[in-house]
Design goal:
The chain is an alpha+beta fold and 129 residues long. 30% of the residues lie in helices and 43% in strands.
């Protein structure tokens, strides 16, 4: 992940470490985070923490793999990556390919993010067979 902006390296590391404090702290106070898991974006630190804790609670382990920078500008980054997780309870191994577009503010914090992944396919993986 060394080719990424340090904020994004820390973002992906916080996912794998289940580190809500770091995850939230990497975002500006007014950050807007769009994710297919919810119809409306998450806005601000409290909503980001609730999102992180909800999603983090689904997995026992989470590893971010196959990270590739697709595009970067001065403050804009498009990153392709895969979430490899062991689900809590069932111990089922799952993988979800993702693309996230990040916008950083002048302080290097994430002020906007748009995650793109196949929510329906992921939910089929999560649901018991």
């Amino acid at each position: 992940m060394s080719q990424l902006h340090p904020t994004l390296n820390a973002y992906f590391a916080s996912l794998g470490a289940h580190d809500a404090d770091t995850f939230v702290g990497l975002h500006s106070a007014e950050a807007v985070f769009h994710d297919p898991i919810a119809p409306e974006p998450f806005r601000g630190h409290a909503a980001l923490r609730a999102f992180f804790e909800q999603v983090g609670g689904l997995s026992e382990t989470l590893e971010v793999i196959d990270v590739a920078l697709l595009f970067s500008g001065p403050t804009t980054f498009a990153v392709q990556w895969t979430a490899s997780a062991t689900l809590a309870g069932s111990k089922k191994a799952v993988r979800w390919p993702c693309v996230t577009n990040f916008q950083l503010d002048g302080d290097g914090r994430i002020c906007a993010a748009l995650a793109v992944w196949d929510h329906e396919a992921a939910m089929r993986d999560v649901m018991p067979s």
